[in-house]
Design goal:
about 400 residues; 2 domains; 5-stranded antiparallel beta sheet; alpha+beta
Length: about 400
């Protein structure tokens, strides 16, 4: 194995410029959720150029590359959609320049999360050059609509493409650490029904804003008493939107709605989170709903799922985690940090729903995700591409 690891490191360094250029090309293509067609075609082209055995686009728009045809299945996943730029005045340069300068690639998506796919394309190139012939099939998925609905893409891959790997590596940014879980999340809407009356006589009506406001203050208190987990940390809840309506600005509001962003730690579920809100509004005329996502992909397919994204983690002594730690130490001569994400990833579906073992390892620092002046070190891409290739060998033993 030592000779293979040495060669992997050499090839990752050799292909540094190609990896950086591939990422630059991806970054130059704006690709918001449901509008990823151009970047999907570019990623598919890069897979073909790297010599993948197969590269195609599925019905939802995910790019699926393949190397090998063995019994054991390993998948590397990276989403190719990004959030928008926000206020351009906060950026020092064009968010879609893909500029390579001073050891960094700059632009929207360099960290979150086109850097991962650029690195795994190079990993595939390395595996092909080394004539990887283990009894393993390796898939490389450039997935879509993650920013709008994390995990939806893997719902499609599992349920429609019947892709059920033995292991998945999520290439979201981890600062080159190994991540083994994160909190789940869900989106809850609470709608309050009031009764309007003339604003000159509010006692005749029932003000939906007052009901919603009392509920908001109780939600604030709820956040303080939510349970915690030694690894994943504390659950949280916050109100991210408050909307109201009335027949006129001279009338009592007969409608109000609040939107809750609920982060779920280990042991918290959709049912327990809904029950907490139901308890708060039990004496109010209110309706509590877990929201649904449904949109049309760039392929024209309409697809969706409930906006409940389960908490997940795998144990530190799990075979996948241990082999990943061994691959890292073998390549780089030091022990990796094993930790967790703050934000949510496709792991909510991969492991949260389907219980497929998965870990995270990706280039870039997650603090730059969704932030202006996003950038990733070229060195991170080299490290990640070497790690992905080495992990294929370790897991195929």
């Amino acid at each position: 194995m030592k000779d293979i690891l040495l060669k992997i490191n050499e090839l990752a360094a050799k292909y540094e410029e190609i990896t950086a250029d591939n990422l630059s090309r991806l970054v130059k293509i704006k690709s918001l959720s449901t509008a990823e067609k151009a970047v999907a075609l570019e990623l598919k082209r890069q897979m073909e150029e790297a010599g993948f055995d197969d590269a195609r686009i599925d019905g939802l728009g995910n790019v699926i590359g393949r190397i090998g045809n063995g019994k054991k299945i390993l998948a590397f996943d990276g989403h190719i959609d990004t959030v928008d730029t926000g206020n351009l005045a906060n950026w020092s340069s064009d968010p879609f320049s893909g500029k390579i300068k001073n050891g960094y690639i700059y632009g929207r998506g360099t960290v979150d999360q086109k850097g991962g796919p650029a690195a795994f394309v190079t990993a595939g190139r390395i595996l092909k050059e080394l004539a990887f012939d283990r009894d393993m099939t390796i898939y490389f998925t450039g997935t879509v609509i993650e920013e709008d609905c994390d995990g939806l893409c893997w719902k499609y891959l599992v349920e429609e493409e019947k892709l059920i790997p033995d292991f998945v590596v999520i290439t979201e940014p981890t600062n080159l650490n190994i991540y083994r879980g994160h909190r789940g999340r869900m989106e809850i809407s609470v709608t309050f029904a009031g009764i309007s009356s003339h604003g000159s006589a509010p006692e005749r009506g029932k003000n939906a804003i007052y009901m919603a406001s009392r509920a908001c203050l109780e939600v604030e208190k709820l956040n303080e008493r939510l349970k915690s987990d030694d690894f994943l940390g504390k659950g949280s809840v916050t109100i991210s939107e408050f909307v109201s309506g009335s027949p006129s600005l001279c009338a009592v509001a007969d409608y109000a709605r609040i939107h809750l962003d609920r982060r779920l730690t280990w042991g918290e579920t959709k049912e327990s989170a809904v029950a907490e809100i139901m308890e708060i509004v039990k004496d109010m005329d209110a309706r509590v709903e877990v929201l649904q996502y449904e949109e049309t992909a760039y392929t024209g397919l309409r697809y969706g799922m409930e906006k409940y994204y389960p908490t997940w983690k795998i144990e530190e002594d799990h075979h996948l985690v241990v082999r990943a730690q061994e691959a890292f130490a073998g390549l780089f001569g030091r022990e990796p940090l094993t930790d967790k994400w703050t934000f949510s990833t496709n792991g909510v579906t991969i492991n949260g729903y389907y219980r497929i073992p998965c870990i995270g390892f990706g280039p870039g620092n997650e603090v730059l995700a969704h932030a202006p002046d996003e950038k990733v070190p070229v060195g991170d891409l080299v490290t990640a591409s070497a790690f992905y290739a080495a992990l294929a060998y370790y897991l195929s033993e």
